[in-house]
Design goal:
Blueprint (H helix, E strand, L loop, with lengths): L1 H23 L10 H33 L3 H23 L1 H6 L3 H36 L4 H7 L30 E5 L2 E5 L4 E5 L2 H6 L6 E5 L2 E4 L14 E3 L5 E3 L5 H6 L6
Helix pairs in contact: 1-2, 1-5, 2-3, 2-5, 3-5
Length: 268
């Protein structure tokens, strides 16, 4: 459902983009008919490029997750590099459009522009989707339980049901709870469970806030760990990492060691 919602947002965004590009008429297309005709032609061309560029964007994001390389830079330069073979494919399947763009000399800037547009539209759709979900949580979701917990009706050390954690409602039904740790990745947060993880678009501090009363601590600028997730008998080794009960290890910042020990989160 989430993927379908993102796709619908992206397809909707293609309409105003096609209207703007059709109005500007780049690559000499301002001479090919009136505004409506240009906008229609550009919508068809942009949708064709979208069909090619969107799977490429998904592939580069998957490579970034697998290699743990900087996601933004890898995806950007990967899409720039992908515009060259994409231009060759477009030259084979879009003969009329190639002539409209002035041949291959105009086709390569067109595919590069489309790659950047698809990246921008996908980025906007993710943020718009996250904003809609946050608006729903704040204005339509149940808040009585969370308000009473903040006011002291629920003790901080009392067990919190997974269903009562707001962040858990953003995750798919297939997520294996409970939430063990949160890891920041650029503009995303990777939510770690007992078996696997999921990536959601939000800031780490907002994700921590949506953990509500689950006991835990931010061990590093990019990590939050649930207290119950620390492996039994685990201590802080020379590498300053905490072993978790799902097999992962969470880093601990040097300047956070004393704070975490004084609060009882880490053993002395």
């Amino acid at each position: 459902m989430k993927r379908l919602r993102r796709v619908l947002l992206e397809l909707w965004a293609m309409l105003p983009v096609a209207a703007v590009v059709g109005f500007l008429g780049p690559f000499g297309t301002y001479l090919s008919g009136d505004f409506l005709l240009r906008a229609g032609r550009w919508w068809i061309m942009l949708m064709g490029a979208y069909i090619l560029a969107r799977p490429t964007l998904i592939a580069w994001r998957a490579i970034a997750r697998a290699t743990r390389l900087p996601r933004g830079s890898l995806v950007f330069w990967g899409m720039v590099a992908s515009s060259f073979p994409m231009a060759l494919i477009w030259r084979l399947v879009g003969r009329d459009e190639v002539r409209l763009l002035g041949g291959y000399a105009g086709l390569l800037p067109f595919t590069l522009l489309c790659c950047l547009l698809v990246m921008t539209i996908a980025w906007w759709a993710e943020r718009a989707d996250a904003h809609l979900l946050r608006y729903y949580d704040e204005h339509m979701g149940p808040t009585t339980v969370f308000a009473s917990a903040r006011e002291g009706a629920v003790p901080m050390d009392a067990p919190v049901k997974e269903a009562d954690v707001r962040l858990h409602r953003r995750l798919s039904p297939a997520f294996a709870g409970p939430i063990v740790a949160l890891e920041s990745e650029d503009h995303y947060v990777r939510v770690h469970g007992q078996r696997g993880s999921e990536l959601i678009l939000m800031r780490l501090r907002d994700a921590i806030a949506e953990m509500d009363d689950v006991p835990g601590a931010q061990t590093h600028r990019s990590w939050w760990v649930a207290r119950a997730a620390i492996a039994d008998g685990a201590g802080l080794g020379k590498s300053r990492e905490i072993p978790l009960n799902n097999g992962l290890s969470a880093p601990v910042a040097r300047d956070s060691v004393d704070r975490l020990r004084q609060s009882g989160f880490l053993p002395d």
